[in-house]
Specification:
The chain is mainly alpha-helical and about 270 residues long. About 40% of the residues lie in helices and about 10% in strands. Among the domains are: about 90 residues, no CATH class; about 45 residues, no CATH class. The protein has a three-stranded antiparallel sheet. The chain is globular, with a radius of gyration of 24 Å.
């Protein structure tokens, strides 16, 4: 089973920015909202890095919401659009990108979808939020007891709940992983999120199938030759063969350091 977006039958909502009632620093928050909606703030959303008024290093790739960024019959807006489009990352003059043009062609029928939103919220909360810690504990218990292969009864229970379990008889974990990726390709999957330990991440690393890294570094030191590595597997013989990250961003998050970046050179950068 997989999801297909119906042609002309889906909608995309904008990313909201909210001011919480009773939150501190209200004046600063209001000034931030005003800046985001200003012309200068909207340039940061979609201008190319290094362009006048654009971001310094990285493109944010978010469509602007201001009307004067898009084509218009209004002469003043038309002039502003011509000034903006030469610097924007996205083709804001394309009717299939322009949200105002798309809105004119789209009819939203609340009775088809509105009543289902509450159901969706409750399902996501029940499946992912309320049971998040239990799901992690269950998976750790499965791994401690030999993994899914050694727990046929647990696998049967997963299938009974509606989960799809991919099975491959190859004794080589990398061969099984390669078969899984081919299955994803057959289903037209273009992006997957890998969330696991060093063994899983290392397997993808050795297959050359990692495009983007999201890492959390805790301010803790461990030692010992048997210390778990974030990337298991054969590794690399010397630092000259290490993969380089580009478009790297670092920030503090809840006491940890969050680092994200893409493999430099794309597919070629991962091929020996």
């Amino acid at each position: 089973m997989f999801y297909v977006t119906p042609a002309g039958g889906s909608s995309v909502s904008g990313d909201p920015i909210s001011l919480l009632r009773g939150a501190p620093n209200r004046e600063t928050a209001e000034r931030f909202l005003q800046f985001v909606l200003s012309e200068a703030g909207q340039k940061l959303w979609n201008y190319q890095p290094g362009t006048p008024g654009g971001p310094r290093r990285f493109a944010l790739r978010r469509l602007p919401s201001r009307r004067d960024f898009y084509p218009s019959d209004d002469p003043e807006f038309a002039v502003r659009h011509d000034e903006h489009r030469q610097y924007c990352v996205d083709r804001i003059g394309n009717p299939d990108v322009n949200p105002y043009a798309l809105a004119a062609r789209f009819t939203y029928r609340p009775r088809w979808t509105a009543r289902h939103f509450t159901v969706h919220r409750q399902l996501i909360r029940a499946m992912c939020l309320d049971s998040g810690e239990e799901l992690k504990a269950a998976w750790q218990a499965i791994l401690r007891n030999g993994g899914p292969e050694a727990n046929a009864a647990d696998k049967a229970r997963l299938k009974a709940t509606g989960c799809e379990v991919f099975e491959d008889d190859s004794p080589n974990p990398n061969t099984r992983l390669d078969a899984l990726l081919r299955e994803f390709g057959n289903r037209k999957f273009t992006n997957i999120l890998i969330e696991g330990g060093g063994r899983l991440a290392g397997a993808f690393f050795e297959l050359g199938e990692i495009d983007e890294i999201h890492a959390f570094i805790a301010p803790k030191l461990v030692s010992g030759t048997g210390t778990t590595s974030p990337l298991a597997g054969a590794g690399i013989p010397n630092m000259e063969e290490a993969l380089q990250l580009e478009t790297v961003e670092c920030r503090s998050l809840g006491g940890d350091t969050y680092i994200t970046g893409r493999i430099a050179g794309g597919k070629e950068g991962r091929t020996n």
